[in-house]
Amino acid sequence: MRTADVPGEHLPPLTRSVAACLAAILELETADVPAPDAGHPEPWTVWRTWLARRGLGLVPVATPRDFGWPGPWIALLRGGVAAVAYGTPPGGLAWAPLGGRFEDVEDGYVVAPYDTSLWRPAEHGAARTSGRVEALAIAPAAEAPMARVEAASALAGHGLEGDRYAAGHGTFSNPHSRGHDLTLIEAEVIDTLGLAPETARRNVVTRGIDLNALVGRRFRVGAAECEGQRLCEPCAHLQRLTEPGILRALVHRGGLRADVIAGGAIRVGDAVVAL
């Protein structure tokens, strides 16, 4: 495996070592990995959000000192630093950017794809890259019913004006995370399930465009410019607010979570175009 540059000494040891380990495991430049500063209260949220854009997550290792894995994983050592562990049988550190021993391992994470069958580079060239807005919906508060509207203002860094997430009051609102501004779902999916557009509790219902292919890409909805962050997979909370069976029906088809980069008006009938 490769090693990577270690971020500057002005950052906390945990940030420096985790960023370097992620870069090494994913074979990226360290500068491409987020490195939260000492004042950030949730560095792990930053890393999880960044990984989600790549279809990846962090899986906790229950007993890391006994964990045999024929691949690299992140070992958290006593003293608040990270290293790359490797091997089966267990017992070795492949690389410790700030030093340490396997005997000091206290916790660990495997960097793993959300779905192994889907973990491959997106084939953007084959995707449907344009469509239109078929419906818009907002809710004023968490768990409140979604109401359809003909037009809404998308606010940069917030979401649709009048929606609970734009106000920071959504069920999953988190100022340290990303992908909470705007949710989208394909009308083709809703048609297949026989649902009303607002039932899926997404802000924007699109037709014609492949939303899954927009993860990590910028796109335009009406006058607003957005960036896809990760798939908007269904959850038990959604099923509780809607109807039994919707969770399973929407797996990998639940739409897209996006951030609003540049605000603007969105109306039913507006174009949705990948940039």
Describe the protein's architecture and organization.
Helices cover 15% and strands 32% of the residues. Strand 3 and strand 4 form a beta hairpin. A seven-stranded mixed β-barrel has the order 6-11-10-14-13-12-16. The mean pLDDT is 91. The longest helix has 14 residues.
List the helices and strands and how they pair.
Blueprint: H1 13-26, H2 43-52, E1 56-60, E2 69-77, E3 81-87, E4 93-95, E5 105-113, E6 130-138, E7 147-149, E8 151-155, E9 159-160, E10 182-186, H3 187-193, E11 204-207, E12 218-221, E13 224-231, H4 236-241, H5 246-249, E14 256-262, E15 264-267, E16 271-274
Parallel strand pairs: 10-11
Antiparallel strand pairs: 1-5, 2-3, 2-5, 3-4, 6-7, 6-11, 6-16, 8-9, 8-15, 10-14, 12-13, 12-16, 13-14
Q: What is the N-to-C succession of helices and strands? A: HHEEEEEEEEEEHEEEHHEEE
> Main β-sheet: number of strands, strand sense, barrel status?
7 strands, mixed, barrel
Q: Uncertain runs with pLDDT below 50, 5 residues or more?
A: none
Shape: elongated
| Beta-strand content bin | 25-35%
Estimate the mean pLDDT confidence: 91
* Helical segment count: 5
Distance between the termini: 35 Å
Structural class: alpha+beta
Strand order of the largest sheet: 6-11-10-14-13-12-16
Helix content: 10-25%
**Rg over C-alpha atoms, rounded to the nearest angstrom:** 21 Å
**Annotation, overall tally of beta strands:** 16
Based on the model shown, name its key terms.
275 residues, alpha+beta, 7-stranded mixed β-barrel, 5-stranded antiparallel β-sheet, 5 helices, 32% strand
